[in-house]
User: Which sequence fits this backbone?
């Protein structure tokens, strides 16, 4: 019998799910700026590379707008999915 190793859920997906949840619950308003990357990573207890991977995934989904040198913003509803 051949079995494949069970891969644990990727950390960046867990991070993205937490951020997606706070956006979905309205805890962070559209257009609001999220804390700095370093602060977010510290609050979540994760590395910055793992956080960056999650932020990229959420940006691709249209939930976040990552502006280099400016910050990480929650996308406006009309901007999502573009």
Assistant:
């Amino acid at each position: 019998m051949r079995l494949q190793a069970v891969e644990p859920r990727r950390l960046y997906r867990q991070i993205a799910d937490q951020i997606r949840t706070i956006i979905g619950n309205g805890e962070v308003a559209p257009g609001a700026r999220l804390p700095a990357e370093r602060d977010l990573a510290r609050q979540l207890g994760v590395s910055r590379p793992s956080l960056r991977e999650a932020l990229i995934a959420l940006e691709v989904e249209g939930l976040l707008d990552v502006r280099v040198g400016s910050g990480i913003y929650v996308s406006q509803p009309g901007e999502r999915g573009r």
Summary: The two ends are 46 Å apart (CA to CA). The chain has a mean pLDDT of 89. The domain at 11-79 is CATH 1.10.10.10 (Arc Repressor Mutant, subunit A). Strands lie at 64-67, 71-74.
